[in-house]
């Protein structure tokens, strides 16, 4: 939901609150009461859809990123352990120090730091491809680690939703806002004139509530062009 839509939703709620405050005034006009109930439903639909969109998309991407990171960590630690055993066997203390790490080291740091560490381990393994073969780190294992690093980097920069998804969800919300606008323009706005003389306080509050305060700070009466 963009800023303008949030402003319109605020206006819808103010109108609904005004109508609820003066509910006793329009008991003799069932059509007005039905329109108020319809606006209430319009608002609920908009809020529900906005929550579904932001929650589902964010959760989906978060899970995907988490799975990719777990895969990279698993392969990195597996490879590092093999490198450490090789370093110990060959008496290479410097390599042993560079390759010594644990899962907690990767999980407790920043994602980008973990990616850099994984790349360093991958480079160490690639530089000793033949020597590490007896330790279970073959070409397939090295490729798997490289692919997991690339996938983690790709998802790290992936937006919460694609352009097509944004277009689809924006369209869904526009339809719901159009339905709410119709309730106001085609039903409540015409019927409120019935109370101009009989209950001016209700009439004035309703009209005031129909003003939309947009993010720019301007205030204007919503018209058909805002639909």
What does this structure look like?
There is one protein chain. With 227 residues, the chain is mostly helical. It folds into 2 domains: 3-59 and 163-226, no CATH class; 61-156, no CATH class. The protein is 76% helix and 3% strand. The chain has a two-stranded antiparallel ribbon. Helix 1 packs across helix 2 (30-90). The two termini are 15 Å apart.
Q: What fraction of residues sit in β-strands?
A: under 5%
Specify the number of helices: 9
Strand order, main sheet: write it out: 1-2
Distance between the termini: 15 Å
How many domains? The number is: 2
Mean pLDDT: 85
Number of strands: 2
Strand-and-helix sequence, N→C? HHHHHHHHHEE
What are the key terms here?
227 residues, mainly alpha, two-stranded antiparallel sheet, 9 helices, 2 strands, 3% strand, rod-shaped
